Amino acid sequence: MREVERSAASVEEAIEAALEELGVSEQEASVQIVQDSQRGLLGFGSQEAIVRVRVRDDASGAEAEEQAELAEDFLAGLLERMGIDADLDHAVVDNVMYVDVLATSDEGIGLLIGRHGQTLDALQEIVRSAVQRQTESRCRFMIDMEDYRKRRRAQLADRGRAAAAKVLRTGRPESLEPMTSYERKVIHDVVSETAGLDTASEGEDPDRFVVIRKKG
User: Fold this and answer.
1) 17 vs 211: CA distance, rounded Å
2) Are 95 and 168 within 8 A, CB to CB?
3) Are residues 75 and 122 both part of a single domain?
4) Domain match, 136 and 204 both
5) C-alpha distances in angstroms, 54 versus 47, 79, 96, 132, 189?
6) Which domain holds residue 112?
7) How many domains would you assign to the chain?
8) What is the predicted pLDDT for the residue at 126?
9) Per DSSP, what are the bridge partners of residue 31?
10) Inter-residue contact 126 to 79 (CB < 8 Å)
11) In the chain, which stretches have pLDDT less than 70?
């Protein structure tokens, strides 16, 4: 069993560093938060987040299935209270468990996605928190609406491959635009397919970004 423990300024940054080292996506890993980050008064007494991440075995697929079903139930009730009609389903695509929201009408869906998916990200955290309280384990599913995330993932993959090709051609490092931890992981995974290149996340959230450079 492969397992690493990493610390960083936030839980998400610590998880990202551990996943990079293990070479897996969050859907393929089990994450334990050993210590949450804490800001000290005037910079004193602060503490970093510490996480322990291990590569999951196939049996954990049942856990992801259970989480997705609980997410569907919670989301169905939430959408009903908001007066939004939609069909819900879940499936694994490219090793990611998606809880899909497919609208029966256009009303309200655009607002739930928001600018650059920000409202969708916030909604996802609400649902994840609710499911996490029931299962007492970190949730790994992604909520998608009208395939917005899947299209975004494909765009990011193309962006990462183009940047990787440029670095190979010019030999100069390439810094990408700020992204969420999930989006940065997509870039890390795509660039890892190209031999001779390294990636690293730099900066601080919400302006954290990926740098692609040649090895050595």
Assistant:
1) 14
2) no
3) yes
4) no
5) 23, 35, 17, 19, 17
6) 60-146
7) 3
8) 94
9) 53
10) no
11) 1, 27, 40-45, 57-61, 107
